[in-house]
């Protein structure tokens, strides 16, 4: 049996999809959470000077996207055909586009520009991407984004909608299929247990 060690900072961020995958699969892993104070000493030992890093039987994998896809393949969450895998990738890319807008607004230092970007995020970007997700669920027709079972796409979208609903509880009310999806994935016993027990963090 493979051993897994995931190293990241002590918040959700770019490691949370991997943590959710482990939770869904019911697989044990070493969840190493480091402080910013310890990061400079650890940084040279990582493949690209970045976190998260996943170690599988001692072999290191960098880049969160590569980690998530590796784990999805390991635990049967990457589709049943090449086309399904491509459809999953499509949704992951869409989420990355959304997160780029979030990060741009979050880390803007000019206060006037930050206010403008935040307004755009809330009024245009979030509704746009929620609409994309709603339409994808409608097109697939199974209650999941790809195929008829939970995949990396569902876990990734749930991670996004959880963050949105945390700050705006009514945000999904205009997207009934997405709201149902959010509730369904969040009700999976092993995911619910993990989310209920995890440490609250801002990001």
From TrEMBL:
Biological process, per Gene Ontology: glutathione metabolic process
Signal peptide boundaries: none
Domain of life: Eukaryota
InterPro entries xrefs: Glutathione-S-Trfase_C-like, Glutathione-S-Trfase_C_sf, Glutathione_S-Trfase, Glutathione_S-Trfase_N, GST_C, GST_superfamily, Thioredoxin-like_sf
Occurrences of domain GST C-terminal (ranges): 81-203
Domain GST N-terminal: 2-79
Record-linked Pfam families: GST_C_3, GST_N
Coiled coil: none
Keywords associated with the record: Eye lens protein
GO molecular function: glutathione transferase activity; structural constituent of eye lens
PANTHER family per UniProt: GLUTATHIONE S-TRANSFERASE
Family recorded in the similarity comment: Belongs to the GST superfamily.
Functional note: S-crystallins are structural components of squids and octopi eye lens. Contains relatively little if any GST activity.
Protein's name according to its UniProt entry: Uncharacterized protein
Organism listed in the record: Elysia crispata
């Amino acid at each position: 049996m493979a051993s897994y060690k995931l190293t990241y900072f002590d918040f959700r961020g770019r490691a949370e999809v991997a943590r959710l995958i482990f939770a869904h699969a019911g697989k044990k892993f070493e969840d190493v959470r480091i402080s910013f104070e310890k990061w400079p000493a650890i940084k040279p030992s990582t493949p690209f000077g970045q976190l998260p890093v996943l170690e599988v039987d001692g072999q290191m994998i960098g880049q969160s996207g590569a980690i998530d896809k590796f784990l999805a393949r390991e635990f049967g969450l990457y589709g049943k055909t090449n086309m399904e895998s491509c459809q999953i990738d499509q949704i992951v890319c869409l989420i990355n586009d959304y997160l780029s807008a979030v990060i741009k607004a979050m880390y803007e230092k000019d206060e006037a520009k930050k206010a403008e970007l935040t307004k755009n995020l809330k009024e245009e970007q979030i509704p746009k991407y929620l609409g994309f997700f709603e339409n994808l669920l409608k097109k697939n027709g199974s209650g999941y984004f790809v195929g008829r079972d939970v995949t990396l796409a569902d876990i990734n979208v749930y991670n996004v909608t959880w963050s949105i609903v945390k700050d705006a509880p009514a945000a999904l009310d205009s997207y009934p299929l997405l709201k149902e999806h959010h509730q369904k994935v969040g009700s999976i016993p092993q995911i619910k247990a993990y989310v209920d027990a995890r440490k609250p963090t801002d990001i």
